[in-house]
Amino acid sequence: MDTNTILFTPTANLTSSTLYTLVITNGVTADSGQSVEGNRTVGGHEITFTTKGSSFANFTAIGANYATGGQYMPPFVESMIPAPGIKVAPNAKLLLTFNEPMSTSTISTVNIKLKKSGVIQTITVTTDNNTRRTVTITPSSALSAGDYELEVLGAVANTTGIPMRNDQNAAMPAFTSRFTVSGSTDSTAPTFQATFTSGATEIPVNDGYIEFGAGEVLDPSTLTTSNVTLQRGSTCETATIQYDPGDNSVYLVPSSVLAPNTTYTVTFGTGVKDLNGNPLTSSQAFSFTTASTVDSAGPKIREARCDDYTCTFFFTEAVVNATQADSANYGASVLNPGNFTLTQGPIGNPTQTSVSLSGTTMSYDTVNFSMKVEGLTIPRGNEYRVVANAAIKDLTGNAIVTAGSANQITGAIED
After folding, report:
1. Distances (CA, A) of 153 to 73, 121, 165
2. Within 246-335, where are the H helices?
3. Which of 12, 227, 318, 411 is 20 to 30 A removed from 185 (C-alpha atoms)?
4. DSSP per-residue codes, 73-93
5. How far apart, in Å, are the Cα atoms of 214 and each of 2, 79, 91, 133, 211?
């Protein structure tokens, strides 16, 4: 029997378009009696996921609604590495980033092709299982010098099954990009640069994340909590890691607010590799000391954008984003639908009709300080008003500012 694996089987089917959190408490222990150490500050680990909505059936079912907005908008390639026209080494790998989570069954060599002079090259494609947005393309051998073209066919679809192109164009390229292979094999190791000088002091405790720039594009699969660590003295702090290939930035997100007047160290281990497989030659560490004073200003809503299906609310700083599993903090969380009042109506009367958030999917972006709600039904051409209720707090416990309507925004519903 494999004692290192736990299989969780729900007693009933999960509800579609619903946020769930699987909590493993510190009551789970190893044979030695040591509790599980994960991303929970009180011990244990939790995994949050959202079930997908109603699956796309066929184009007959949605008629002319395809690509008209909301849930029927097709996914697209947000960025590709290498960028168009760039020269790369023979051992280069390719990295695609999509704008939303993708269906792994459609991310395959059937739908993603690398060509040289029209001849299909042998590759493997691997989807990042955490976000399902990034796809690594690995040639089976070093590429010979010359010009190459990458094609992503229209059959590639998002997690609800909406493809990049309609059924008549499923076998046609929906995205293409060209690059050139030249020179010798890349053997340069990656390096990192922090947004602060190592040894810096007065770092705010509630920035929400710690940002690092990489000297080369990284292999996302190597950015794990084993290879990138946050320590307070000799104690490891729980954190999650996000990587944006577009701006080549790594974001380390602590699971709790940093302690004031305390020294922390972030270490990138030699397990971190660039996209072409070159590891760090040695560990790279950055230390900083947090400020002795704690922020006392509350957050505000700085921007909101809504279409007929999705609304995204941006805050001026990091805010509490606890799920229902964290009962102590859920009341102050932006993932609590009870903390928002959303209305819509004709231009000039945005409070005419309440918009229910029940049954929607809510998610939080720790880097942009934004909350996205998907699954709405709002008439295009109208206005909306969102009011963030006073219960919402920032990471240090300051309530959202309500004076001067700093907790509300009115705007047009976009097409």
Report:
1. 16, 16, 8
2. none
3. 227
4. PPP-EEEEESPTT-EE-TT--
5. 38, 17, 19, 20, 10
